[in-house]
Specification:
Layout: H1 2-5, H2 9-29, H3 36-56, E1 61-64, E2 67-70, H4 75-83, H5 102-117, E3 129-133, H6 140-150, E4 154-158, H7 160-163, H8 170-185, E5 191-195, H9 199-202, H10 210-226, E6 235-241, H11 249-252, E7 257-260, H12 266-277, H13 288-294, H14 300-320, H15 333-342, H16 349-362
Parallel strand pairs: 3-6, 3-7, 4-5, 5-6
Antiparallel strand pairs: 1-2
Helix pairs in contact: 2-3, 8-10, 12-13, 12-14, 14-15
Length: about 375
């Protein structure tokens, strides 16, 4: 191509990829075309050539004053791509805001927070991969966000929705870019790469297409690179999943810590009710111990929703009475009982047993 001949390797790589995309569109729309094998071979050749040119262009990324700078003419595209993953305004949540999960929090302190603060105390290194698994709504994502605040690190969020692409080779390129950026800053500032709904990216499926396998292979390569001996960077990959049994077994050993984030026990449920009830007015007959007893199997988000629904009953009454300028009445114990009679837990006993069995076989805290 002309761009390649005149030395503009970045634009040449783009054109090779565009040509490959056109051929892949033909492949997808005309599967019975007698030329299909030739198209596929040419497309693969274009992708290979694009990767070679991108490697030769030696795209490097540095962080200056908190802004991402790419040392090449295509810096705006790279900056935009990375901004899809870097969480600029991290949630303000901290460890002390998370109720319960004490064992999980201690494991994270041991694996991440302490090494960041005193790396000299860890001559044998520290875990770089942590898997958080358990039922939905129990605090996995909140825990990951709190980690970034505890160590004042860069928080990058990855999931199937923002990493996968219909374009051949694009998803692997994004993953490589994320880890290249993390390596560029990880020696001076902690980087948390959070993979949400990890089973969608790291799972093993019989009927997967080629792109999914290539993404998994690229992630495996990057995870292995983080564990190389002698590296003292502060890059951590934290993955969260509600379906740990779907994960490809090849990934499990890359996560040195596999932590079960269970539904809250009675003590934690009581603390959750106490926390949320601080924001509303209640009558003296509200029995928090009783509520904690009756909500076994409810997730942390379930308990928040119970308090919200009980409070909304009083707001609904206010609007129906046409006295909207007044304040709603205090929430009563009867309000909570009515809500509990209609609202069942989102986590079944069979689900809990399955999580506990998986934790017994694969958990590592």
């Amino acid at each position: 191509m002309i761009n390649e001949k005149v030395g503009n390797k970045i634009d040449a790589a783009k054109n090779y990829r565009k040509a490959a995309e056109i051929l892949m569109t033909i492949l997808n729309n005309y599967r019975n075309d007698p030329m299909i094998n030739i198209y596929r071979s040419v497309a693969e050749g274009y992708i290979k050539k694009a990767k070679e040119l991108e490697e030769e262009s030696k795209i490097s990324i540095s962080v200056l004053g908190g802004d991402i700078k790419a040392i090449q003419n295509d810096n705006e595209n790279i900056e935009e791509a990375l901004q899809d993953f870097i969480v600029i305004e991290k949630p303000s949540i901290r460890f002390e805001d998370i109720i319960g999960l004490e064992e999980a929090k201690q494991a994270i302190l041991d694996s991440i927070v302490y090494p960041v603060k005193r790396p000299d105390l860890f001559p044998l290194g520290w875990p770089r991969g942590i898997l958080l698994f358990g039922p939905p709504g129990c605090g996995k994502t909140m825990l990951a966000a709190a980690i970034a605040n505890e160590i004042d690190g860069i928080f990058m969020q990855v999931d199937a929705a923002n990493i996968m692409s219909k374009w051949l080779g694009e998803a692997e390129k994004k993953i490589a870019m994320i880890f290249n950026y993390a390596r560029g800053v990880g020696s001076s500032k902690p980087v948390i790469i959070f993979i949400d709904e990890a089973d969608a990216l790291l799972g093993g499926y019989e009927n997967e297409i080629g792109g999914e396998a290539r993404v998994r292979n690229q992630l495996l390569k990057e995870l292995d690179g983080l564990s190389e001996k002698g590296r003292k960077h502060f890059i951590y990959v934290i993955a969260a999943t509600n379906k740990p049994w779907k994960l490809d077994l090849g990934f499990l050993r890359r996560f040195q810590k596999r932590i079960y984030i269970s539904s809250p026990n009675k003590e934690a449920r009581k603390s959750l009710f106490e926390y949320y009830l601080k924001f509303i007015k209640i009558t003296d007959d509200v029995n928090i111990d009783f509520l904690a007893e009756k909500t076994e199997g409810y997730s942390a988000s379930d308990i928040r929703d119970i308090v919200l629904e009980a409070y909304l009953r009083t707001v609904r009454e206010l609007f129906k009475s046409n006295a909207i300028s007044n304040n709603p009445r205090p929430v009563t114990m009867n309000d909570f009982i009515e809500v509990l009679n209609r609202r069942k837990p989102s986590i079944s006993n069979s689900m809990i047993k399955r999580y506990e069995e998986w934790a017994k076989n694969f958990g590592s805290i």
